[in-house]
């Protein structure tokens, strides 16, 4: 059985083809600048040379049509024809309260995705465009939606409600949803295997640290809390997102800077975080380099970043009443060994001790705990596409 996994952004389409007999990747690729002059497709068939095609594409349907042409190309394709694709899995960011697991897409599912446009305006519209483009080109195979929010739907009201008038929740569904769910799901299950314990018996803290970042506290196989909230703006300090702030700052700066709501949204989502604090970059590698060169703002920005993660680790250990392991994943979590070291330093009172030498690895699955650490510290490269492929196979069957 072969599964096509699609992740459609506003102007991009990421894809992978899996052979689900052994879960191997046959090809992966990216169509960039869809609907914008200068569209490029980068196609990477496993075991063959990378192919780059430059061709302007007006919309996602044209983008998916080109992807299918590339996949079936006699020279650099990986399948003979589209009949080899048994199902298509789609990453969808927001499923609201409607979905606690992945689901086969029908008109009702598409309506829920559309109903979430207001609370995920940057992600759900292109996700739906990708679904409809694929359905148009592949109408006879099942299409499955895998939601970033679904994994966090086990949270209880005391952890997902905000202290607002209750009708904000009842009328507008203002609550914490959480994101990066497929990543948290994958690494938490891998960690349970590394611990040699049943997933349902573990107390786990997952740290998905990339340009966007979130953490989750998982107990007895259920998410009890997570850092991202109603939107991905809440929680950790991120590349360009502020994370947790006093909400009064929003209208204070709107008044002082004369911003409207759209401009304020851009200010806190696109101009803040590490970029705003350091004045250097949204990329943590650049901020680290600047700090090492003596840039004081970069040094302070890093400390703010580390302190926020440390604070949530303490918060979650309290809520879990202990912790079996802490997992680092995503771009920064998997590769930034200096970031992991800084976060885990001076936490031995909580039983967290890192082996600094073991920790000096990038992008590998490894236990970096010190021998006497009560809490295990794991680095686990995430694999969201594999989670989507597995769910798609299960539901298609």
From TrEMBL:
Substrate binds at residue 91. It comes from the Bacteria. ATP binds at residues 14, 208-212, 283-285, 331-335. Gene3D superfamilies: 3.30.420.40. It is an enzyme of class 2 (transferase). Keywords: ATP-binding, Cytoplasm, Kinase, Magnesium, Metal-binding, Nucleotide-binding, Transferase. Its cofactor is Mg(2+); Mn(2+). It is found in: Cytoplasm. One of its GO terms (molecular function) is magnesium ion binding. Mg(2+) binds at residues 7, 384. Coiled coil: none annotated. Pathway: Metabolic intermediate biosynthesis; acetyl-CoA biosynthesis; acetyl-CoA from acetate: step 1/2. It catalyses: acetate + ATP = acetyl phosphate + ADP. GO terms for biological process: acetate metabolic process; acetyl-CoA biosynthetic process. InterPro entries: Ac/propionate_kinase (IPR004372), Aliphatic_acid_kin_short-chain (IPR000890), Aliphatic_acid_kinase_CS (IPR023865), ATPase_NBD (IPR043129). Homodimer. Belongs to the acetokinase family. This is Acetate kinase. It comes from Syntrophomonas zehnderi OL-4.
